[in-house]
Amino acid sequence: MLTIKEIAEMANVSRSTVSRALNNSGYVSEDAMERIKKVIAETGYAPSEHAKSLRTKRTKVIGVILPTIQTETSSKIVAGIDKELSTQGYQILLANTNLDKAKEIEYVDLLKARQVDGIILVATNTDPLLLKKIKGLTIPIVIIGQEMEGLVNVLYDDYHASRELTSFLIEKGHRKIAFIGVDEEDRAVGFLRKKGYKDEMIAHKLSIEPAWIQKGIFDIDSGRQAMDQIWTTSQNKPTAAFAVTDRLAIGALSFLKDHKISVPEQMAIASIGASEISQYVDPPLTTIDYQNEKAGKEAAHQLLTNIGTKAAIKKIILDYRLIIRDSV
Amino acid sequence: MLTIKEIAEMANVSRSTVSRALNNSGYVSEDAMERIKKVIAETGYAPSEHAKSLRTKRTKVIGVILPTIQTETSSKIVAGIDKELSTQGYQILLANTNLDKAKEIEYVDLLKARQVDGIILVATNTDPLLLKKIKGLTIPIVIIGQEMEGLVNVLYDDYHASRELTSFLIEKGHRKIAFIGVDEEDRAVGFLRKKGYKDEMIAHKLSIEPAWIQKGIFDIDSGRQAMDQIWTTSQNKPTAAFAVTDRLAIGALSFLKDHKISVPEQMAIASIGASEISQYVDPPLTTIDYQNEKAGKEAAHQLLTNIGTKAAIKKIILDYRLIIRDSV
DNA sequence: CTGTTAGCGCCTTCAC
DNA sequence: GTGAAGGCGCTAACAG
């Protein structure tokens, strides 16, 4: 590997001068600058970022911990993060947990060892152990998607979005509304969205049958199964269903289609996510857009402003908007 | 930051002993080992990967250059890469080009500077400049999706997949088949898939009207526009269309639906991609599954075997399979 | 404007 | 079994 020393020799200057030229810090004569540039161009020399980081303590790398990259939500968030970071010359080091909570903690350590300049955590839970580990960190961290006390959070407004969506269904005349959720350990998606639904139902004095509430994981098939459960076990069949993610809704749709249950006539469907595909399924889905890319961008922005300074505690709650389509 | 020196002092041993304990290289007495472990547990010390890399020349990081992360194809590839790499303790450093060819080259340099142990390039073109840059690399690199002479390639069988899909449409009785492609600079998706289509048509002595061949970019809307063009400008309307990606097909579907043109009766649609959603659109899409996750895994596997050894030149052509659904 | 020097934190001989 | 010493490639005073 080519080092600064060899470049210096070839250009007949000292290493410091090359370094100065490289970082354009301090004075370098035009003459020297030219010779150095020439040598670099000829050799294709690239200074070792590791040696640099070792000296400067900065890496220009941000660690991104996420539960999976196989969802549109995640990729949009990452795209948003990247968009913001790349303008400042930062890169992303991926840490994919595959929904394994232990790995979440492990990766915090690994990223610390790699001395990333900051971490963005796309969280699915608010485990105390994780929280504790994070609080011990000296580098800035931003949490997306779950509220963690005392940290910088970029949050979706799960509770209100959920209430609004439920309210919309009620407005449309529905009284019997089913709910397809996920595990409540995921406080944002599991707990808050369910609470929003329940509270809105209660506010309208509408009762909820136990069979109407089903739980899936984050995939299409479990949405299908949930709707199957709802449809086959409900004494009193609901006329609408609220799924906490588009995928769950799409699964539900697929069950209904196969059983010739018409949407929205016999069963209306609404969800949260606004995935690209939500408008191309049959019928197009009424859904809430969370603007995930913006979330990523915002998180990256917050992180960058916190690098080098003491992290301000901050809670950023993002906007959402209801997209009304034919499924309701 | 905590360093090995401080750990050594706290454990009453020398830095070398700590280092040995950390890497379990050489002999360390049980006694010393225990003290060191205790101190590390108490302090949460994590050795600096940069200092390590500077010495050992290995980073346990792989650079992944991709055109975008906002497609299912990309995220599946990355997921596959990650699955394989993480078993060996490697991590991914992302380099997103946003389809900017200049950045592709730039990122090769950047990753080199970061001294990644290897690079996986998800390629969209075979630009000579890029090729030249790559050939100058001393670290292993694996190319996914485009054939580049003299390198390790993981390829989809675009030409044959395309012929087979066209052949399938012909078998189903179609004689007038339209084609929605992309720019041919993308040799795999643009050129080869088109060639497969054309050759198969010719092999069956079927003629192609110019208006049947349209071009889009990689999004849904351009598929819609392409079908619009086909439908409105064809003198002799086709009875089927082959779109080179699922998204393009979904766009086409959406146009047809809005214009009450029934699928597959008036117009059959088939495509390549087998995206998760392809089975939930209306009607479900006949498509070819390329197994992108496997591509990523395979690429990562090849890369890992090439680290440390002289890279064998290799061409791995992946399997595909036709998924027949109601759109044809 | 330029060169000398001293580490950054770690691993790795080489003695002991 | 363990420690001392040197150096990976770079930057940042400091002296000229």
Automatic annotation (TrEMBL), chains A, B:
PANTHER family: HTH-TYPE TRANSCRIPTIONAL REGULATOR TRER (PTHR30146:SF146), LACI-RELATED TRANSCRIPTIONAL REPRESSOR (PTHR30146). It comes from the Bacteria. The lineage of its organism: Bacteria, Bacillati, Bacillota, Bacilli, Bacillales. Pfam families: LacI, Peripla_BP_3. Residues 2-46 form the HTH cro/C1-type domain. The keyword DNA-binding applies. CDD domains: HTH_LacI, PBP1_TreR-like. Coiled coil: none annotated. Residues 1-18 form the HTH merR-type domain. Keywords: DNA-binding, Transcription, Transcription regulation. It comes from Virgibacillus tibetensis. GO terms for molecular function: DNA binding. Gene3D superfamilies: 3.40.50.2300, lambda repressor-like DNA-binding domains. Residues 2-56 form the HTH lacI-type domain. This is LacI family DNA-binding transcriptional regulator. The keyword Cytoplasm does not apply.
